[in-house]
Model the fold of this input.
Amino acid sequence: MNCCKEKPIIELQAGQKLCKKHFTEYFEDKVHKTITKFDLIGKKENLGVAVSGGKDSLTLSFILNKLSKRNPKIKIEAIAIDEGIKNYRDKSLITAKEFCNKHNIKLNIYSFKEEFGMPLDNMLKVLDVKPCTICGIFRRYLLNKKSKELRLTKLATGHNLDDECQSIMMNQFKNNIHLSARLGPNSGVKENKQMVQRIKPLYLCAEKEVTTYAFINNILDEFNECSNITKSYRAQIRDMLNDLEAKFSGTKYAIVNSFLQILPDLKEKFKEAEVNYCKECNEPASKDKCNACKYVEKLEKAKIEI
Amino acid sequence: MQINVFFDRENKEKTIEVDENSSVKDLLGKMKINPVTVIVSKDNNILTEDEKINDRDKIKLISVISGG
Done:
């Protein structure tokens, strides 16, 4: 069923076809309802937006910037991490800079090279480690540390429905259910002042919807893929879920919605009695040393051996 | 009929032969591309899966999959 006389651009899971105008309203309404339902943004915030230069983070910045203009008590600024992945992050950071300039958003960039001594490309030459593992550990570490330095009240990330669905299934298939307890639209430990709460306003938006919104708002850049992604387990789970979605429309929503029903129980079950702090850097850690400091140590040793 | 298709993920243009009266869905089927993973555009306008395509149309496939 069409929304109006205008030409439709997307067919929703329920079968309704929306034109450009009605899709924009539908999408922005969905993001605002997600923010309200999960209490993601308060009346006064100094919000950070993790920006990569990809469609998800730019769409999120675009929408939060609109929100900020309507609510002067909600301020936003962007944080980007330059991992040091040649022909990928260097290109996407140019897009991020152009976008932030155009929309008058302050952009803070931090690099692995400056913070950890070398870019990711070089780390992978000296350490036998999965790229996404070390990249994720260092990126999350920097995002939290720098968010605190910038005195941000929350950090918004561009994770969408597809990302969450993949994480849920990866944890399920690898029997890492304790990791799923950290998922959800507002991850992070709320009570811990050392941990800046992360929020995911695009949580219920499918990747195709995000791309459609980015396309019609001219914030979609040329396709640019990290050279490490094809090696990842996530990419295989993503393809499997997309195959299922094509055969059984609504699969991803069903997975995430059913997960949301059990999430409070998971959080209760895996509630950490007390949070440890890294003896090296004082960032939150599960043991006496955080994973980032463990890898920094390994990098130092590997450099000496070379 | 022949359709010119540019797929951004592969950065390549291909000519695809499809039957008369084919739709976007038929084209994606012929290319073995999952419709969930792309948006399809012509002249910078998005097409839905049931829209008919015409001989010599220039179609752009935009990958919805995140690159990182």
Observations:
- The helical segments of chain B are 24-30.
- The beta strands of chain B are 2-7, 12-17, 38-42, 45-47, 58-63.
- Residues 2-63 of chain B form a domain with the Ubiquitin-like (UB roll) fold (CATH 3.10.20.30).
